[in-house]
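# nightly structure sweep
# worker-07 picked up a monomer target from the shared queue
# config: single-sequence mode, recycle default, output format = C-alpha cells
# input follows
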Amino acid sequence: MSWERVEADQIEGVPAPETQRLVGHERAYAGILAALDAGRPPSAIMLHGPRGIGKATFAFTLARELLTRTSDETAERVDAQVASMAHPNLFVLRRARDLSATDKFYTAIRVEDVRTARDALQRTRGRAGYRIAIIDSVDDCNANSANALLKTLEEPPAETLFIVLSHRPGGLLPTIRSRCQSIALRPLPDGEVSTVVSAIRPDTDSEALARAIRLAGGRPRRALETLMFEEGDMLDALVTWLDSPHVQPVRAQLAIAESLAAAKGAELSFAQDIIRDWIAAEAENAARAGASARFRLASANALWDKASALVADADIYNLDRRQTLVSVFDLIRDHARKFATAA
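# output follows
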C-alpha cells in the first residue's frame, strides 16, 4: 500500500527509487543483514545523510530483502510488487499530492497521513511476513505529524520495521531519533556515482558525465540534476572558487554572484547546496582535527549560522540575491584566509 506513487521532488525521466537497485553503502547494508541473520531485527532504523546519496533506494532494497525473507513468495514476485508499489505489507509515507491543485504537493507530511498509516498498520496484515513502513522523509513532517509518528514508534506493531529517512537528523525531535537505530550514510565515491548515472542515462557522453560527477560531490541525484542544466561554466566557476577562496580575486566572486543571481531556481538551489556542502565539510574537517582546531571549528559553525541566516532572510524578505551571495562569499573568504594553513 502506498500513500503516494510519485515523489514530490522526483526528477523528470529518472526512475523512482522503488524501481532501482542499490549502488554503494555496502557496509551499512551488510550490518543490517547481519542483525537480521542473528534474529535481532530492529523495530525502527533511521537512514540519515546528505540528500541525494541513495537513502530511499537503500530503503526499498532492504524492504525487498526482508519481505522476501519472511514471506512464501519468490524474490521475483516481491520485486515486481515493490516496483509497482502494490505489496500489501509495504507502506510508504511521503508528502501527498494536493488534489485541489494540478501537479502540486502538500508542503509537509500531514498528521492525517500519519494517522492513516498507523491505523493501517494496526489492522490484520494482508500477507504473511514482516511489514515495512518507509517514511520518506521524516524531515517533511510538521510538528503535529512528527508527534503522531513518535507515538507510533513508541508502540510499534509486531513484526514491523520502520525505515525512517532523514537529510537533517539534527533538526528532528530527539525522542524520534532515540526510537531508531541510527545508520549514517555518506556520499558515494565518484566511480559509484558514475555507475548510477550511466545506468539511468546510458547515452550521456563522457565529457558531460565527467562534469556531472565533478559537481555531484558524491550524490547521484545531484549528478543527474546537472545533466538537466544548460551548458555553462557558472557552477564550475563556483566549485573552482571554493577550492581556494582565500586566494581568488574579488572580481571572481562578484562575477559568480552576478551569474547565480540571474540563474533559474533549480540552478540557484543547486549552487546553494554546493556552498552548504563546502561549509559542512570545513566544519567536519575541523572537528576531525581535534582540540588543536577548536577555533577553526567554532569559526566554521559561526559561518554556517551566518550564511544560513543571510539566505533565509533573502528568501523571506525578497532581498537582492546578488548582494546576499556576495555577503556569503565574503564570509567564506574571510574564514578561509584565517585558517588557510590548517585547511
